[in-house]
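Fill in residues.
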């Protein structure tokens, strides 16, 4: 930029900086430029159809209706919801844990290979202690006897390992 004051254009428009600039003109595109039909669109304009899939799978399961039939409303029978009670969980885990603990304890008096049964008894007793419908006393007995069977079985296995080292 220079500090020379600008003089107005010949047409009386904007002041120029001393050199005459050619006027801007718009030329039409040459024959080499192709305009593909239908591909250009204005941003934000609607398309002819949807081209993207929905964001998730759409279920096509039949709709199950529960309630009174529309034609039966107002007749002699009133609709009532089903009164069937939900099934009660009658399975008990604590007696099975106690039985496994007793079997493991008896086996641990003679051999050390009863340790898998003892571990199963301990796990089953812990699970039965967490359930509200189980007998706490039976589950505690199963836990104590299962832990005793585990200790006795481990004692047998340690003793057998020490004997094996003496032979070998």
């Amino acid at each position: 930029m220079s500090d020379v004051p600008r003089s107005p254009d010949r047409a009386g428009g904007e002041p120029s900086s001393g050199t005459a600039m050619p006027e801007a003109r718009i030329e039409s595109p040459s024959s080499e430029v192709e305009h593909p039909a239908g591909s250009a669109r204005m941003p934000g304009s609607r398309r002819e159809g949807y081209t993207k899939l929905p964001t998730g799978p759409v279920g096509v399961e039949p709709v199950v209706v529960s309630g009174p039939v529309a034609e039966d409303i107002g007749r002699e029978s009133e609709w009532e919801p089903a009164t069937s009670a939900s099934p009660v969980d009658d399975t008990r885990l604590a007696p099975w844990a106690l039985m496994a603990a007793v079997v493991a304890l008896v086996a641990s008096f003679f051999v050390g290979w009863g340790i898998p049964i003892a571990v199963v008894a301990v796990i089953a007793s812990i699970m039965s202690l967490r359930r509200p419908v189980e007998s706490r006393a039976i589950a505690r007995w199963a836990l104590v006897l299962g832990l005793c069977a585990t200790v006795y079985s481990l004692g047998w296995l340690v003793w057998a390992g020490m004997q094996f080292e003496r032979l070998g």
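The helical segments are 94-108, 115-130, 136-167.
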